Amino acid sequence: MQSGTAKTTRWLLEFEQERAREIDPLMGWTSSSDTRQQVKLWFDTREEAVAYAQRNGIAATVEEPNEPRRRTIAYSDNFRFNRVGQWTH
Q: Is the pLDDT of residue 76 over 90?
């Protein structure tokens, strides 16, 4: 598989959990009566996300994205004669 960088420049606004999750006594499922934690709002820019939060009185914390560490290797590197690890199936 290859991981691409499509749609990684968008900003996400998530609501924090207000109530603790509860375990249903009959089925054992985890549930919550707080429906705001299911809402996710996507924005094209950071400024739009911050402006929306300020307009609606939402306390917001901005987390900067981390730069992904990518290894550039080719498929043929799997079959090199001077491979570091042993070939296993």
A: no
What's the CA gap between 80 and 33, in Å, rounded?
56
Reply yes or no on whether the pLDDT at 78 is more than 70: yes
Q: Is the distance from CB of 65 to CB of 8 less than 8 angstroms?
A: yes
**Are the C-beta atoms of 32 and 23 separated by less than 8 Å?**
no
Tokens 């001077």 correspond to 82
What are residue 62's phi and psi, to 5 degrees?
-95, 125
Give the pTM.
Answer: 0.59
Cβ atoms of residues 13 and 40 within 8 Å: yes
Instruction: State the average pLDDT for the chain.
Output: 83
Helix (H) or strand (E) holding 12: strand 11-14
